[in-house]
């Protein structure tokens, strides 16, 4: 099947603008993609290649990525996200879709399941944020002192980068975590992105009881894919949750955080 060209659209509501990319194949079921931090729709290129003959694609640029933006200093409200997604599905005439979210995108996928289960046929999460809240993230986003500390942390980043390097060499933190921190915070633009994502998305946290109930009531299968060597969203982090979320299909792949999507795509190709 010849690859269809991507089309681009924008949809707006209440000072929020959401950019989306889509490929529509008549009669084919839809897959919705939500990328991770500092990525765009191209993060799922290998997955698109594996699935294109069988599905239509809708890939969303999360706010502060691509042309998606919030023209306000206030944090994003889940109701604004809900209205945007419902309008977008109506625009593209999508009834239900298989949702797929990586890292930060997993949090938005779960929030969508909490608010709009009728738009889901299935959910696949890769190294998802939004299930286990890191105590440091809670402190940095849910309190005024924490948000101030985050601002100071990012303002004096050269010193912080020096500490990360020292701690990494001393074995206090994993070298992979040190490299990830360096890659994500190396420029003023990247540090501003971190500040926006952490502070402006602080009200977006999925209510576990609600999304689990919605999945059960609407018979929505959920699969969670983790990387065995992921030091950012680690397998260990989900140890307790794996027992608690017994209805979820859990899979571990021989991958870290940055190459998990690629390894997942290879698994899809092998099983098609």
Descriptive key words:
single chain, 272 residues, alpha/beta, Rossmann fold, 2 domains, 20% strand, globular
Write up what this structure looks like:
This protein is of the alpha/beta class and 272 residues long. The protein folds into two domains: 7-132 and 205-271, Alpha/Beta hydrolase fold, catalytic domain (Rossmann fold); 135-198, no CATH class. Helices cover 44% and strands 20% of the residues. The chain is built from eleven helices and nine strands. The chain has helices at residues 45-51, 78-92, 104-115, 135-142, 144-155, 157-170, 175-184, 188-200, 208-217, 239-244, 260-271, and strands spanning 7-13, 16-23, 29-34, 55-61, 69-70, 97-102, 120-126, 222-227, 249-253. Strands 1, 2, 3, 4, 5, 6, 7, 8 and 9 form a nine-stranded mixed beta sheet that branches. The chain is globular, with a radius of gyration of 19 Å. The model has no long low-confidence stretch (mean pLDDT 88).
Explain briefly what this protein structure is.
With 272 residues, this protein is α/β, with parallel strands linked by helices. The chain has helices spanning 45-51, 78-92, 104-115, 135-142, 144-155, 157-170, 175-184, 188-200, 208-217, 239-244, 260-271, and strands spanning 7-13, 16-23, 29-34, 55-61, 69-70, 97-102, 120-126, 222-227, 249-253. 44% of the residues lie in helices and 20% in strands.
């Amino acid at each position: 099947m010849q690859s269809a060209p991507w089309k681009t659209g924008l949809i707006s509501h209440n000072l929020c603008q959401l950019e989306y990319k889509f490929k529509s194949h008549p009669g084919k079921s839809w897959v919705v993609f939500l990328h991770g931090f500092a990525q765009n729709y191209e993060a799922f290129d290998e997955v698109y290649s594996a699935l294109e003959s069988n599905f239509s694609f809708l890939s969303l640029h999360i706010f502060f990525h691509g042309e998606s933006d919030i023209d306000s200093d206030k944090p994003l409200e889940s109701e604004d996200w809900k209205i945007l997604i419902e309008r977008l599905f109506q625009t593209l005439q999508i009834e239900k879709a298989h949702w797929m979210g990586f890292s930060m995108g997993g949090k938005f996928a779960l929030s969508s399941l909490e608010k709009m289960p009728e738009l889901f046929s299935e959910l696949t999460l890769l190294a998802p944020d939004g299930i286990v809240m890191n105590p440091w993230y809670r402190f940095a986003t849910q309190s005024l002192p924490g948000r101030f500390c985050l601002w100071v942390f990012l303002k004096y980043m050269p010193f912080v980068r020096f500490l990360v390097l020292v701690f990494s060499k001393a074995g206090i933190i994993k070298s992979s975590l040190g490299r990830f921190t360096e890659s994500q915070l190396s420029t003023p633009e990247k540090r501003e992105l971190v500040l926006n994502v952490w502070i402006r998305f602080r009200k977006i946290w999925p209510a576990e009881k609600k999304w689990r109930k919605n999945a059960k009531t609407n018979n929505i299968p959920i699969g969670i894919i983790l990387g065995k060597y992921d030091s950012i969203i680690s397998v260990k982090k989900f140890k307790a949750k794996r027992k608690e979320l017994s209805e979820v299909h859990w899979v571990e792949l021989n991958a870290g955080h940055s190459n998990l999507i690629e390894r997942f795509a290879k698994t899809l190709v092998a099983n098609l």
